[in-house]
Amino acid sequence: MGYFTTAVDLKKDGLFLAGEPDDGNSQYDGRAYEWLTIVERALLSGGQFGPSTVVPYDWLWARAWPRGAIQLSQPINGDHKLTATFTMGSRSVTAQILPDGTSLAGYRIQEDTTPARHLVTVSQNDVPNNVTYITLSEPWTGRTKSVTSWMAYPDTYELPTDFIRGTSPLFIMAFPASGFPYTIDVIDPPDLERYYPQTYPMAAGRTQSGLPVVAARVTETKLRFSHYLYTPDTPYPVQIEFEYIRRPDVLAEGAIPMVPIQHRRILSYGLAYLILADKDDSSATPVWQQFQAQWKAMMDEYRRGLRRMSSRWGVVQPSRVTQAWGPPLWTTGGLPVWSW
């Protein structure tokens, strides 16, 4: 079996455990890789698998490396040199031509005297006429005007295509931060809009600092930040990084599964169980028990690693902001309750 190195080794092992030929003549040969992928992804996402449920863990082997990164970009026309013409009640906007290759699709328009941050659906450069045609998602709610006091900034940023879930806050590398990263928490979209509405501050519609302080996942694949990046004194992109669990690729003959080799046979057990369950074979139950035993061994190893490699495991930690505890409080039953 090649010590279960590649998916073909696991496929042959799973067919063998299910009593099926591994020479290509099994009726399950064509679905084996699909089912192996289902098993591997179930280990990450959990849910019903067999007669029980699989509890997902943030396995070390499933964490993306390099970790995720997003580069925040400065707004278009941040220097207020390009003139744009807005017409009340119209979705069409014209502007002096934008830099080559620039598209404003997915951007929002910020104009000093208009509260609404209109979303752009399409933009197209007309090079011969030195014009960019912009289409808004909704009609312009401000007055008809031709002004330079407008900017366009990205409404959202894309998460990695293999993103399942995050395992850390966002770490922003930008000044002012004494040159060190600081964290951005991901909160719910309603809270983001409540504390940092699109028109904040209300008087001018511009953010105060130009650097985000929190973010929210607005769809499965998109992040919105509390502030759009706008730092005229340092007009450069800002990098944000984060840890996340990545989605495994679909397994094929030469593919190497993400599961570490010492636990990789759990995929064989899962494949064999699915085959036996499909055949309504009574031997599916003991194979399922083997799957559970391998899963428990992998879980125990994961937990032991967390405990033995960190003095912080299972210990009440102080506030991340103050790095200090408040006075300890006690319940009527004598249990400690920490405050900070």
Structural summary, described in words:
With 340 residues, the protein is of the alpha+beta class. The chain has two domains: 111 residues; 179 residues, no CATH class. The protein is 21% helix and 26% strand. The protein is built from five helices and 20 strands. The strands form five sheets. It has a seven-stranded mixed β-sheet with strand order 3-17-13-14-15-16-11. A seven-stranded antiparallel β-sheet has the order 9-4-5-8-7-6-10, with no helix packed on it. It has a two-stranded antiparallel sheet with strand order 1-2. Helix 2 packs across helix 4 and helix 4 packs antiparallel against helix 5. The chain is extended.
Characteristic terms for this protein:
about 350 residues; alpha+beta; 2 domains; seven-stranded mixed beta sheet; seven-stranded antiparallel beta sheet; about 20% helix; about 25% strand
Summarize the structure.
By secondary structure, the protein is of the alpha+beta class. It has two domains: 111 residues; 179 residues, no CATH class.
Form type? extended
Mean pLDDT: 88
Give the SSE order as H and E letters: HHEEEEEEEEEEEEEEHEEEEHHEE
Strand order of the largest sheet: 3-17-13-14-15-16-11
Helix share of residues?
10-25%
Category from helices, strands and their pairing? alpha+beta
The value of Rg in angstroms is 27 Å
Distance between termini?
A: 55 Å
> Major sheet, described briefly?
7 strands, mixed
Based on the structure, what is the oligomeric state of the protein chains? single chain
Residue ranges: pLDDT <50 for 5 or more in a row? Answer: 202-208
* Number of extended strands: 20
Structurally, the number of domains stands at: 2
Count of individual helical segments: 5
Relative strand content? 25-35%
